[in-house]
Amino acid sequence: MKNGPARFNLYLDRFEELLIESAKQPDPALSLYQNGARTPLFMLEGLARLYSGLHNKKRFTRIGMHFKLLEDALGAIDYYDGFAKQFAQDKTVPAAATKAVQTKCSDKVKVLNNLLKKKNWLGTDANRISKIRSKLRGADWMEDKAELKAIESLYGASIIKINAFAKTYATGFTALETQVHELRRKLRWLSIYPQAMQGGIQLTMDASKDKNVAKYLTPDIVNSPFNKLPDTGANRYMLVFARDYFLALSWIISELGKLKDQGLRTVVLNEVGVKAKTDAKGEAAILKKASAITSTYFAEKNLDKLVVGVMKANGNR
Q: What is the pLDDT of residues 255-275, one digit of tens each?
């Protein structure tokens, strides 16, 4: 049984529906943004990244780049839209600065509209989806158990690399983008793949006896819908993760994300001519906090305890 094609097709179908609907709107890019197109694109990009590490590397890397271009464009819209809304509610931010950020958001919408046409996602020559489906049909898909074993190995290799990256900054971070943000990006993919796998990855139900992990199991993390993985469904085998360590992974991603947003606020304000009064001091505080939480997280070797192994869907190895 080969589950790979179905995983791609589910999210391709969802994104194609959004494309068809957006084509009917005056502003297709804005329609895609407002209707959550970024989510299926994240899943598709995640699957392409994952499968490029298993087989047909060149094929999946190219497919993934198509999704990444759109996801990055939507991310840029979200970036400026989020700060525009935040600044509009903040009386300390000049109205002119808020308007400037709104203009940047509109500019990014135009960029996405151009990209949709240029890359043949929309318009009279739209054939990008059909081309991707054709490429997928020609891939060397693996049987389900062998595929999950390969993904287990890929996680192991990824975790070794992430641990090494974090160890490089064991004495403290000195840069937000190339260090803190980059670490978060690497960690985030580990949490996106399980969602994209549509039941191929599951969590243990047993609570860990590790006292160190308890501090990460906050109500927000435990109850987050992003930490509820799809049911096993038709999958005959599953790659199992330790629940508490998966939640701990989610916690560190979330906390680094909050710190990232604090740093980006200053970046956006400076971009539109509002000089933050505490730039250096504020960034130093963010780096210090990021260093503290990551130092503890990696010292506890939480990532090393994430993957349990491949089992049959009935629970047997």
A: 999 999 888 888 899 898 887
